[in-house]
């Protein structure tokens, strides 16, 4: 097929196709293939297999083809830099007001869920669905606002805060994969509820700072089934959400639990939440470990792709988060500390920064730094990033700077 006929599409080898891509045309007539339908979004590995059996090339909608050429790299640099950004029609600073309202409601509900389980009361599933829908709406307008809020981590009940962040990350990842709003809502509900079974695990095990014994680990591994059993008695919980609760600790190599499912046996939404669940756990402070930086966390996920996690989903997550996401704290080669404001789509490795601490790690006059330009420090040295730091490093409160109007993030 002539690519000019398929406007808004790009021609891609079928070996480079990924889940979430919208197929618009093939290199042969549809009638000559085994497909009974035309123009579809790839949802399953089985569809990828059929595409590879039937043709050599396919024409893919540009907006759904983000990062197609970075899927098989050993490190996630190109996964994060070669993508064509999805449209973000609402300005970050405008959307933030709505995002904060949605976040506040969802945060309150995540606490109510835990309280209901502890008290033996029914979960208000209808309310959960309503707050998740507000979050989906915000993420569809501009995901950067709610993703920014996931970086502000509180030292409160880990299960409640973690479930909230995993829900936001899962909705945004579903958007990156091209899922429609109704499916994003189901993923969000499942993610909000994914760890309710941990309320059946003793605090002494949940909060143990040292390694769990074999018996303790067996109890910990019971939480997906405990959550599933609890929620099957609740009216209105979507079946897809139940899949997430039961299967978010399954692994593509079959080494997960509780059922030892592998690859395509694991429900698609559960594979999504498995990635976001692991990412938030790795990047958060726990009783037994300090949170890793975004870059370290992404590298850990990427190394586990195709063993623990679905490779295509991990690749999409890396593209979505990026190597230098807004709100990340970085230390410069001159020892100064800055907050990442974002990066232009054409150069994701050269972000814009706000310098907030001097080389002595004390507050100093803020300074805008554009690594894509020629910006130098007081000694005439060009600015460069030494390391990406974990959330809250050096006591930097990113939200305090945003509230002061010093952080202006533009879509890039």
TrEMBL record:
<dbReference type="InterPro" id="IPR006674">
    <property type="entry name" value="HD_domain"/>
</dbReference>
<dbReference type="InterPro" id="IPR021812">
    <property type="entry name" value="DUF3391"/>
</dbReference>
<dbReference type="InterPro" id="IPR006675">
    <property type="entry name" value="HDIG_dom"/>
</dbReference>
<feature type="domain" description="HD">
    <location>
        <begin position="159"/>
        <end position="282"/>
    </location>
</feature>
<protein>
    <submittedName>
        <fullName>HD domain-containing protein</fullName>
    </submittedName>
</protein>
<dbReference type="Pfam" id="PF11871">
    <property type="entry name" value="DUF3391"/>
</dbReference>
<dbReference type="InterPro" id="IPR003607">
    <property type="entry name" value="HD/PDEase_dom"/>
</dbReference>
<feature type="domain" description="HD-GYP">
    <location>
        <begin position="137"/>
        <end position="333"/>
    </location>
</feature>
<dbReference type="GO" id="GO:0008081">
    <property type="term" value="F:phosphoric diester hydrolase activity"/>
</dbReference>
<dbReference type="Pfam" id="PF13487">
    <property type="entry name" value="HD_5"/>
</dbReference>
<dbReference type="InterPro" id="IPR037522">
    <property type="entry name" value="HD_GYP_dom"/>
</dbReference>
